[in-house]
């Protein structure tokens, strides 16, 4: 569905943002796009929906070049930016005006999501807090039923109960012909939510693998001491001793601590990547 071939991009010459990025993404999955602040996550998402144009290389999405912004492409893609300004209208007016751009828009689902988020359906957008407005926009994004859904830092601005609601709403919404990419630097928020991880670092793809593969290759465990047979690749102190990452030499997939994984990858790049030989 998405094919990036040697994509490069910069805002100012000499300051690369994306360099030689090659990537294939398939539908039916939720991808987590991870990276430190400024790694280029938003820029990559903008390249996928035609908001910025590659300086070199090719981007193909759903058989289109996003930069051409053809209506048949735009009605199948939705990006929810990290921050936005809401128009001075009611929720109902938002649906009446904007839903028309998305032929598969599911109005009933929209109101169901709003209910799950506990946002009143008769609210005036400008009277909502940023977090509430974000929940309206997440509901709108999911209800568009577009083929490619890009959520840039979707949990930013949500309080802890809202993050729980977010997880509930997202779980089970994706259909087989849809692809969702969620970017974040708050890696913990995506625990148990994504199928596949892509990590951007130093303008390039550092890591690209499914969550299943990670849980087969790495073992996340709690240990009282660090004196076991196998020296951990990475460890962090916890209340009960240490959480460690070691190679998974068992035949049982490990449950993943997403934040530990990201920290471990950033800290011990070579050792971690060596376990994923592709
Ligand atoms: N409009 C712009 N003009 C110039 N430079 C920009 C612009 N937008 C982003 N950049 C720069 O491009 C780089 C990548 O930014 P981008 O927003 O894509 O990163 P990000 O990974 O999404 O960051 P964050 O996690 O902080 O949202 C950063 O160094 C940023 O300063």
UniProtKB/TrEMBL annotation:
Among InterPro entries, the record links this protein to: AAA+_ATPase, ABC_transporter-like_ATP-bd, ABC_Transporter_VariousFunc, P-loop_NTPase
Query: Is Transport there in the keyword field?
Result: yes
Tell me which residues make up the ABC transporter domain.
Answer: 2-227
Give a Pfam family name: ABC_tran
Key words of the record: ATP-binding, Nucleotide-binding, Transport
Q: Which GO terms describe its molecular function?
A: ATP binding
Cite the CDD domains for this sequence: ABC_DR_subfamily_A (cd03230)
Question: What superkingdom does the record give?
Answer: Bacteria
Q: What's the protein called, per UniProt?
A: ABC transporter ATP-binding protein
Species, as recorded: Chitinophaga horti
């Amino acid at each position: 569905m998405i094919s990036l071939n040697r994509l490069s991009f910069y805002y100012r010459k000499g300051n690369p943002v994306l360099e030689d990025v090659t990537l294939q993404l398939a539908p039916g999955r939720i991808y987590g796009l991870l990276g430190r602040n400024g790694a280029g996550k938003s820029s990559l998402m903008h390249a996928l929906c035609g908001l910025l144009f590659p300086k070199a290389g090719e981007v193909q999405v759903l058989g289109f070049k996003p930069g051409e912004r053809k209506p048949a492409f735009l009605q199948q893609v939705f990006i929810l930016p990290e921050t936005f300004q809401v128009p001075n209208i009611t929720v109902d007016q938002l649906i009446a005006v904007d839903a028309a751009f998305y032929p598969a828009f599911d109005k009933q689902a929209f109101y169901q999501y709003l209910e799950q988020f506990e946002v009143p359906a008769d609210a005036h957008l400008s009277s909502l807090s940023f977090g509430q407005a974000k929940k309206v926009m997440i509901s709108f994004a999911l209800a568009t039923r577009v083929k490619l859904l890009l959520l840039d830092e979707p949990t930013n601005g949500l309080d802890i109960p809202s993050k729980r609601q977010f997880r509930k709403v997202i779980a089970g919404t994706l259909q087989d012909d849809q692809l969702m990419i969620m970017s974040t630097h708050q890696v913990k928020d995506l625990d148990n939510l994504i199928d596949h991880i892509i990590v951007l670092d130093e303008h390039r793809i550092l890591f690209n693998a499914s969550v299943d593969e990670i849980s087969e290759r790495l073992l996340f465990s709690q240990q009282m001491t660090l004196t076991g047979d196998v020296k951990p690749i990475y460890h962090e102190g916890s209340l009960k001793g240490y959480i460690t990452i070691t190679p998974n030499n068992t035949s049982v997939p490990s449950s993943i601590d997403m934040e530990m994984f990201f920290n471990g990858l950033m800290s011990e790049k070579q050792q971690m990547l060596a376990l994923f030989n592709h």
